[in-house]
Structure formats: C-alpha cells, structure tokens
Amino acid sequence: MISVFTATYNRAENLKDLYKSLQNQTFKDFEWVIVDDGSTDNTKEVIDSFIKNNDMKIIYKYQENGGKMRAHNTGVSLVNGEYFFGIDSDDSLTPNALEIVNKNYQKIKDNNEIAGLVFLNCKKGTNEIIGTKFPENNIVDTYYNIYKKYNVTGDKEFTFKTSIVKEYLFPVAEGEKFVPEAALFNRVCKKYKFLFCNEVAMNVEYLESGYSNNYFKLAKNNPKGQVLYYKELYELEPTLYNVAAYDMYSIFAKNGIVKTIKNHPSKLKSLVMYLPALYKAKTKK
What we know:
12 helices
C-alpha cells in the first residue's frame, strides 16, 4: 500500500533510528525503498543488517553521488506502493504515522484533483510542532496557497499518490546537485491540490550538515537550480524579489546577459538594465 522512501548519504547511524520507527509502525502494509547516494561510510553494511532481520520489505539501491534530487528520482522508479511517503535519513516516524496516512489516503484515493496529503512535523525528541498548524483540519488547497493565503509557517510533510510523484520528477541541473524541493511542489500546485491534515506524522531533526541548515550555501553553489526555481516561482508570485533573485543567480551561473534576458520571467525585465553593471562589479571582485 505505502512506499516509504529515503535518500541517504553517509548517515549510517541515523538510519538505525529511522529503522526502529518503521519497526514500530501500527500499519504494516509498506515497503522501505532506500537510495544510497554514494555513501563512503558503512551505510551498506547497516542496511544489509536490516534486510537480514526480514521484518519488512526493503529495496536498496546504491548510485554515484548526484544529490538528493537525483536520488529521489531513482527512488520513484523503484517504488511499488499506491502511496509515496518520503522521509530523510535523520528523521523518524511517529508510531501511527503510516496508519494515519492510510486513513486519510482513503479520503482522496478516487479524487483526481488531489495529489496527496500534508501532515505536521515535530522536533525530534519533543512534542513541539514545527511552525504553525493549519487553520482547519482537512483543508483542500494548493501548496502555494497554504503558505500565502493562510500564513502557515514551518516545514510540513508532503506525501503523494505514487502516480502523481511519477508524473512530477525533480528537475535537475547539469553539473549541480541541488534544486529546492519547492520547485517540484510549485509545479504540482499548478494542476493539483493537497489535503492538509492537522496530525503529526514525523519527528524531524535538523543536523548541522543537513539541507535545511545549509540552504543558502547550497543555493549559491548550485545557481542553475535556483535560476530554474525563481523563474517558475515568478509565474506564481510576480514580485520584484523573485526577479532580483533570478538575476542574481543568473550571474552566479554565468548565464550571460543574452541568455538571461531571453529566458527572463518578467515581461518588463525590470532589473535586466542593471545586469551589465552587476556583471562588471562581479568581474572586478
């Protein structure tokens, strides 16, 4: 019924906690698909020990390091369940997480306008909800609107019908390993909505070396992905900030003025007139 997916990189010890939380699930009809994105620690040995226990179906795939988004796309090609639940290797599930996924999935199973379910997250080791709850339980709306229309804050757990997640793979940029997860969510919300549930499904830990704590460093080092993200975000939110971000990351990506203007999200191209000066300033540095 449910495919739990984890992309991992050098997180052998963290995987043990996640594995225990899967062992403790009240709902047992699931598989665990793990894509190892080029780990150099003992991740394979740890996962082999899980497989030998034979207490759940585990699919393990090793690939050369290409970033979480490529690992996600590989995982999508391996899953067999009707429903897709992604969880990072440093997080864990509440004991009834998959049970509440299955319960709520039955509500949307035959609704072709809804792509999946969204749940609340707690900080690992506490009962503290990350950000705010949804204003009402079982709101049906887009990913974009839930944050802009209802002013919801904090990371949430987005889960998908498998058919939808196979339709919307993560965009990847050549030579880069990072694209914001919101890039995929924004694409989905142009066509589909989600059911937002005020139930906690996941315990989240923000490691110092993780994506959340290194977002801006990752963004600067992977500018092509940011150009793509802000170009598409501008279609949803045509603000000066998004134009400026598109221009800035175009400079970091060394796209050149002609390419930047040609692909510019804003018809007014309000900041493009400043690009030559920006390029010149960057060259001097």
